[in-house]
Amino acid sequence: MVAFSVFFLATGCKPEPMHGGPGTLTLNAEFRMGGDSVTVGRTAVDAADNNLRLETFSIYLGAIELLNDTGAVRLSDAERWDAGAPNSWEYVVEPGTYSGFRVHLGVPAEFNTDTDPTIWPNSHPLGVTGSAGMFWSWNTGYIFSKFDGKADTTGADSFTHPYAFHIGGDDQLIEVRYNEPWTVAECSFHTFDLEADILDFLVNGNDTIDVRDDNITHTGDNPALAQRYVAAQQQAVTLRKQE
How many Å apart are CA 78 and CA 124, to the nearest integer? Predict the structure, then answer.
């Protein structure tokens, strides 16, 4: 009974005979690596026939917004997801009809360049502790996504070849959108899945990033490789509403 009461306090929904209150939106980050869960130490063969071992996968989901006829309703400025961490977030949503829903891969420009992480609570995803390992410096901004590890490029089960894709910069912000109208009724539940296989971040049509040769970018030091990676990421990530 305690959990039941806490739920209604949190959402504002009221039990019968009274009724009414906002809906709930759950966002899941359903990332995979070679069809398996994204966890540190996972190995998988990429499109260029290299066996990749994962050491880091972290990504910011920023400017999470409902879309309506008048613009956007911000649910969250930023969330951070790391390999193996809980991958679900819940938001209170006002009843109504919405024209879509969108999530950005990265940190919105208004909070990125020239922002000091100390303006946020320490544990906030953009705060000092929350952004640990995902912030270059106060004037260059946040690392939007980080995918790195060691590769076996010889078929000898020898993971000695490093790869690192560290993406940042306002120009690299990606919008992923669900573009269908949908309605939030009082006290209703809605679930969206942000989906991708992270190996597909290395493939964009006929352009395959082969970590034998193109294995390191911190964006500014290898912008051409960063742009190829972001273009593939844009194609790979989808946002789906569960029925």
Answer: 9
Contacts of 152 (CB under 8 A, 6+ apart): 50, 51, 53, 158, 159, 160, 161
Tell which residue, 176, 165, 175, has the closest CA to residue 223: 165
Beta bridge pairs of residue 147: 57, 165
pLDDT 10s digits, 192-225 = 999 999 999 999 999 999 999 999 999 999 999 9
Q: How many CB atoms lie within 10 A of CB 80?
A: 20
Contacts of 93 by beta carbon, 8 Å cutoff, 6+ apart? 22, 23, 24, 25, 66, 75, 184, 190
Cα distances (Å, whole numbers) of residue 23 to 26, 43, 44, 177:
10, 39, 39, 20
Amino acid at position 30, single letter: E
Q: Which residues pair with 194 in a beta bridge?
A: 29, 239
User: Which tokens in the block code for residue 7?
Assistant: 């739920």
For residue 157, give the DSSP letter: S
Q: How far apart are CA 234 and CA 227, in angstroms?
A: 10
Q: Which of 117, 92, 115 is nearest to 27 (CA)?
A: 92
Q: What is the token pair recorded at 13?
A: 């929904």
Specify the pTM: 0.90
Residue-wise DSSP of 136-150: EETTTEEEEEEEEEE
Q: CA distances (Å), 72 to each of 61, 66, 100, 183, 238, in order? A: 16, 6, 9, 15, 19
